[in-house]
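Anyone? Bumping this.
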Amino acid sequence: MRAVILLILAGTLLASVSHAGEHHIGMAGTAYAPAMVEAKVGDTLVFANDDTQAHNVLIATVGFSTDLGKQDPGSQTTLAVRKSGTFDVECAIHEGMHARVVVRP
Amino acid sequence: MRKNVAISLAAVFATGIAGYTLAGPDRVSFPRGYAERFVLYNTVDRPDRKTIRFMYVSPETHTKAKAGEPAPDGTILIMEDHRAKLDASGSVELGPDGRLVPTGQISNIFVMEKRAGWGEAYPPEVRNGDWDYAHYLPGGAPKADANFDGCFSCHRNRAGRDFNFTYAKYLLDREGK
C-alpha cells in the first residue's frame, strides 16, 4: 500500500515537472517566431534575438504588462508565465512586430 | 547664392533648436493631484530597471477616447515610475500573481500632453503629432537635465497608433478590437 502511494506521489511529481516547459521565440527578419505560443502556467518564454538589429519585448495587455527593455542581437531575455490568460507581445522599436501568448492553467 | 544658402541653413538650424527647446515644463505643466484625479489604466513591470510604471490618463479626455482613433485634444498621459520591492539580496520580489511589487517610492514622473498645433514647432522628422513631453521629479519639480530626444524618437515608433504604447492598446483591448 505504502509503495503504491509512493508511486502515485512520484508520478504526480514527474507530471508536474514535465508541465514546466520552455518556449523559444526568435526575432529574425523583424518577426517573432512563432507568432502564436500556447503555454502553461509555470512555463518560461525565452526571447532570443537572432536578428541583425535590436528589438524589444513589450507586453501592454492589462494584468500582464511588462517591458523587458532593449535587446541587442545575440542576446536573450526570459519571462516566466505565472497566471493564465492571453496577452500580446510587441516590439517597441518595430511597430509591425507582434506575437500572442495563450497561457492555460 | 552662397549667402542665400547659408541663411537658409541657419534658419533650418534655428528652427530645429527652437523646436527642441519647447519640450519640457514650459509647455507641459505638472498635473498636480493626478494620482487622485486621473485614471490609472495600467501598470507595467520593468524588471531590468527594478521599476513598476503606473500609467495614468486625464479623466476629461478618457471618457471621449475611442479605440483606433487618435486620443482627444487635451489628453494627458503620465508614466509614474515606482521602485520595486527588493529582497535581502537586492533581487526583486514577486507577488502571488508573479508581478513585481511596487513600493511607494517614486523615482520619475514622465508626462506627455497633446494640444492642437503643438507639433508644428518641430521638424517633420522629429514631430510626434501634436504631443509634447516633460519630465518631473517626485513633488513636481522639473528634472533639470531632462533630455527629450529619447521621448520623441521612441514614441515615433508608434506613429500608427497616435505615438503611444499602452493607452492605445488599452482602448483596443477594452473595446475588443
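Late reply, but here is one note on the structure posted above: The longest strand of chain B covers residues 102-114.
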